[in-house]
Amino acid sequence: MWKILFLIHAGLAGVWAADYELLLEDPDIFARCTEAPPGTIFFRDAINFDKLSVEQEPNTLHVSGNATTTWDLEPTDRIAAKFALFQYQRGNWEPTVFTMATQDFCSIMYDKDQYWYKYWTVHITNRNEVEQHCIKKAGTVLIHEPFVMRLILRNIRGATLQGRYKTVISFEAFDEKNVPRGPGVCFEIRGEAEKLKN
Hints:
Elements: H1 2-16, E1 18-24, E2 41-42, H2 43-46, E3 47-48, E4 52-56, E5 61-69, E6 78-89, E7 92-102, H3 105-108, H4 115-119, H5 127-133, E8 141-149, E9 152-156, E10 163-174, E11 185-195
Parallel strand pairs: 2-11
Antiparallel strand pairs: 1-9, 1-11, 3-5, 4-5, 5-8, 6-7, 6-10, 10-11
């Protein structure tokens, strides 16, 4: 009996799943983290975007050009990365259940099953150089093929997403003894959640 109820529930959850898009509120796209740990630097202080073009249309971002790393770490350092979604409620940013983290970003940045890959690194064409240095070595150029990006969360089950949201993306470096090295990197992307029609 329990197996039948579980299968019914799982089937209904699949039917109730929805896709959402984050409609950006800031044309600059990247914002400084409002609650970053002391000493954290902004994304644009770790990667130079002067030669990267990001043009915003109502539902899409058109990205092309190169970005160059300025964050200078040791080759043996490990980079932990985290993505967390927050909702603005009653004057505060409240955490949601949507979080993604990896303790070794460089090892998975070209993993086809990762969101990092699907939304960003699949479009970096000089894969061999980037895999060798990751974003650890200052001067590493990330060459992007022109691509279109939509900030979409797919197959979300449960409560409906409504209102203002922000994604907080952070990177933190650790040395061989697992001691944090230098400043971490953080940025936010803010916008309104809109349910996509199927």
